[in-house]
Specification:
With 485 residues, the chain is of the alpha+beta class. The protein has three domains: 172 residues, Beta-grasp domain (Ubiquitin-like (UB roll)), CATH 3.10.20; 177 residues, Uridine Diphospho-n-acetylenolpyruvylglucosamine Reductase, domain 3 (2-Layer Sandwich), CATH 3.30.465; 121 residues, CO dehydrogenase flavoprotein, C-terminal domain (Enolase-like, domain 1, 2-Layer Sandwich). Helices cover 32% and strands 21% of the residues. Strands 2-1-5-3-4 form a five-stranded mixed β-sheet, with helices on both faces. It has a five-stranded antiparallel β-sheet with strand order 9-10-15-11-12. Helix 8 packs antiparallel against helix 9 and helix 15 packs antiparallel against helix 16. The structure holds flavin-adenine dinucleotide and FE2/S2 (inorganic) cluster (2 copies). This is Xanthine dehydrogenase small subunit. Its EC number is 1.17.1.4. GO terms for molecular function: xanthine dehydrogenase activity. Keywords: FAD, Flavoprotein, Iron, Metal-binding, Oxidoreductase.
Length: 485
């Protein structure tokens, strides 16, 4: 049984474990304003807002793709759909602005776009900030429109605050916790433990259950491959998996244990403060809807060769803390990826946290993602490069790539060619040659093997140029020098 609030009204419904919020709305509840376009999180037509109380008790709404959000994750949450926005006859500012700016033609994408604007409007109310082009792109980058064109939609976003502040009053309802998440000892098919002890118990009793966090990968198995899940353990309510804790490892490195269920949106401020390059990558990972729900734990456990964060974490020398029926263990991320989609996770084990080392003063991290589209696209090749520059030579060089092998993988030969050397033309020439022994990439829809090899080598050349540029007053001179070779 799922208990939640739908547009301010209590709602109770039965659903099989793999039911999505979209199916629940359209097929069980007959609430059909939310549309289905792609059923894979790409088009945004199904965007809804999900609310939960923040630490101050105020409701916080995030946008989500209903097509790949498990219906059971609504338990105890506030769901807002396009039907709920108007207050009596008065339109919500997101709707009024779309009408005034002619932001809709066929209307198929419109409910999703309105819900993304609604979430943006709520965030603006709680923390007013200038609507920069980057913020607008982030808010709307996960919504495709095939006929209106984006300018009127953008105009609507920019003019929402000129419309009367008509909001349904229930939006601010203090969260009543009568809709508690289901306890782990409740033997349902969709388990929602809230503590590490309860999670461990679930893992012990159901070692073959599927784990789910944001579901932005797992739910595609249901919508694209019609998989049925006998039993699911939802890790998103486990308090310990939602924590970000400062820590110092035995080897003396300090940093943060990032709980496996921490979403990208929650991780963003930490990365923006400490790792520019990683934060920039995050802005290009999926859409706002995906970042609101997707987690670092899910990205690592999914073990996709083209997942964005594993190469970065490999370059930074990250570690994992795993939890299972036998207790906890730690291992370097270097030992985690075994083969295509095969990891060191044992049956009944989950990732508890991922260690992100604190950047050190003389350390540099560069990350470059190559994809066909800037917004909401998976990489063809991704290079993540960490090193220190000490007395004119490179030290602790760690180069990791995505899209170049069956697993996210370090380039051991290229690393050896750079380690302890000055970052000059000859060194990088040798590193590019060595790189050809590190990978035998495959051809697929994202890029041919030839493209991948060439791009991976070009990213190393880019690294050389960036280092040289930091060492000279004249970037242009460096570029010209580079083109001459
Ligand atoms: C439209 C769209 C765009 C995307 N774009 C990108 C992109 O640009 N870059 C990118 O890297 N990815 C992208 N993804 C993939 C996805 O968003 C990420 O991989 C995300 O990090 C997965 O996290 P999640 O919490 O949603 O994982 P889930 O889907 O919940 O789980 C993924 C896998 O990990 C397992 N799992 C989850 N949590 C744990 C845990 N704690 N311990 C052990 N196993 C666990 C699950 O069983 C499942 O096998 C995209 C997905 C969509 C739908
Ligand atoms: S239907 Fe396209 S994102 Fe959900
Ligand atoms: S109005 Fe037709 S798809 Fe956007």
């Amino acid at each position: 049984m799922i208990d939640f609030m739908l547009n301010g009204q209590p709602c109770r419904s039965e659903a099989s474990p793999e039911t999505s919020v979209l199916e629940l709305l359209r097929e069980t509840l007959g609430v059909t304003g939310t549309k289905e376009g792609c059923a894979s999180g790409d088009c945004g037509a199904c965007t809804v807002a999900i609310g939960e109380p923040g630490p101050d008790g105020e409701m916080r709404y995030h946008s989500a793709n209903a097509c790949i959000t498990p219906a059971h994750q609504l338990n105890g949450r506030y769901l807002v759909t396009v039907e709920g926005l108007a207050h009596g006859d008065a339109l919500h500012p997101a709707q009024a602005a779309m009408v005034a700016c002619h932001g809709s033609q066929c209307g198929f994408c419109t409910p999703g776009i309105v819900m993304s604007l609604f979430t943006l409007h709520e965030q603006q109310r709680q923390a007013p900030a200038p609507l920069t082009p980057q913020r607008l792109e982030a808010a709307l980058g996960g919504n495709l429109c095939r006929c209106t064109g984006y300018r009127p939609i953008r105009d609507a976003a920019l003019s929402m605050n000129q419309h009367p502040e008509n909001r349904p009053l229930w939006l601010d309802a203090a969260a009543e916790t009568k809709n508690e998440a289901k306890a782990a000892d409740n033997d349902t098919a969709f388990l929602q433990p809230t503590t590490l002890a309860a999670l461990t118990d679930c893992l012990k009793r159901h070692p073959k259950a599927r784990l789910v966090a944001g579901a932005t990968d797992l739910w595609l198995e249901s919508t694209q491959r019609l998989a049925r899940f006998e039993r699911v353990i939802d890790v998103t309510r486990v308090a310990e998996l939602n924590a970000i804790d400062e820590a110092t490892l035995e080897d003396g490195r300090s940093g943060w244990w990032i709980g496996a269920a921490v979403t990208y949106s929650r991780l963003e401020p930490l990365l923006e403060e400490h790792y520019d390059a990683f934060a920039h990558l995050l802005h290009r990972l999926g859409s706002q809807q995906v970042r609101n729900r997707g987690t670092l734990g899910g990205n690592v456990a999914n073990a996709s060769p083209i997942g964005d964060t594993p190469p970065v974490l490999l370059a930074l020398g990250s570690r994992l803390r795993l939890v299972g029926p036998e207790g906890e263990r730690e291992l370097p991320l270097d030992d985690f990826f075994l083969d295509y989609k095969r990891t060191a996770l044992r049956e009944g084990e989950a990732i508890r946290a991922i260690f992100l080392p604190r950047p050190e003063a003389d350390q540099t991290l560069k990350v470059w993602k190559l994809s066909k589209r800037r917004e909401d696209d998976i990489s063809a090749v991704l290079g993540a490069f960490a090193y220190r520059l000490k007395n004119g030579v490179m030290r602790d060089v760690r180069l990791a790539y995505g899209g170049m092998a069956a697993i996210p993988k370090r380039a051991a030969n290229a690393e050896a060619a750079l380690e302890g050397k000055a970052p000059d033309l000859a060194t990088f020439q040798a590193a590019r040659e060595a790189l050809s022994n590190d990978f035998q990439p495959m051809s697929d829809v994202r890029g041919s093997a030839h493209y991948r090899r060439l791009s991976a080598a070009n990213l190393l050349e880019r690294l050389r140029l960036v280092i040289a540029q930091a060492d000279t007053d004249s970037p242009r001179e460096v570029m010209l020098h580079a083109y001459a070779h």
